[in-house]
Amino acid sequence: MSILKNRTVVGVICILVSLLICFGVTPLFNRAVSEKTEIVRVVKEIKAGDEITKDMVQTVEVGGYGLPDNVVRQTDTVVGKYAAADLSVGDYILNTKLTDTPAAENAYLYNLDGTKQAMSVTIKSFADGLSGKLQSGDIVSVIAPDYNGKGATVIPSELKYVEVISVTTSSGADANMGEDTSNKKDKELPSTVTLLVTPEQSKVLAGLEKDGTIHLVLVYRGASDKAAKFIEAQDKTLAALYPLKGTDNTQGTEEGSTANQTVEAESGAK
């Protein structure tokens, strides 16, 4: 250790270390910092659940130093996927913020197969929509006061059993359906109910939406297989009401009536 007491030797060592840092470590560090790489950056606001399209993102060249390993580098990896979180303009996209499926509140819209449609109707008063207690999967009947301007309050045959697929607030967010929200002071009240309907049913609903007040009454909530029986009965009624050209609808009418009676009997026996 006596050699370290020699100031000359210590000075030489310090100089050598300095040279190593200046001409060895520093250039390597600067090279790493200056290296460029391409990443995907957001150019339009993206909300959680939105499907990402080409016009929402772009590929840019940035310094590669300090970038997380899971940053997305190719637009093909992003386009067509869904945002799992809100993304602002200028944000880098991480693969943890992407999902292959839409957000839960929008998933039902991606299950439509063309035979039925999703249609929203306005809840004009709190009571009209079962006081905010409706849930996805509920089977409801639509009551029409002053139906067709004749003063009678009826349940149109087309709308005796209809499935609820969503309840939405005035801000466009899906309501917290079925939850106990008694302690939530800022809870938004439902504004619309989205129903799964056929084209024929949608026309009747559109007329009711325009001309009168729609009341929804809960018919069934429970197992999906039992709920399907109500929809099956409604489909038979619709087939009888709107037969295909050139077919005899007598049998269909009888089947529709029998199906309704069977479902009601099973429901009453529960």
Tell me the strand percentage band: 15-25%
| Strand runs, count | 9
Mean pLDDT: 77
Question: Rough shape?
Answer: rod-shaped
Number of helices: 5
Computed Rg: 32 Å
The computed structural class is alpha+beta
For the biggest β-sheet, the strand order reads 5-8-7-6-9
Structure notes:
The protein is α+β, with helices and mostly antiparallel strands and about 270 residues long. The protein folds into two domains: about 35-100, Antifreeze-like/N-acetylneuraminic acid synthase C-terminal domain (Type Iii Antifreeze Protein Isoform Hplc 12, Alpha-Beta Complex), CATH 3.90.1210; about 105-270, no CATH class. About 30% of the residues lie in helices and about 20% in strands. The protein is built from five helices and nine strands; from the N terminus they run αββββαββββαβαα. The strands form three sheets. It has a five-stranded antiparallel β-sheet with strand order 5-8-7-6-9. It has a two-stranded antiparallel ribbon with strand order 1-2. The longest helix has 28 residues, at about 5-35. The radius of gyration is 32 Å and the shape is rod-shaped. The relative contact order is 0.10. Mean pLDDT is about 75; it is low at about 175-185 and about 250-255.
Any key phrases for this structure?
two-stranded antiparallel ribbon, Type Iii Antifreeze Protein Isoform Hplc 12, 270 residues, 2 domains, 19% strand, alpha+beta
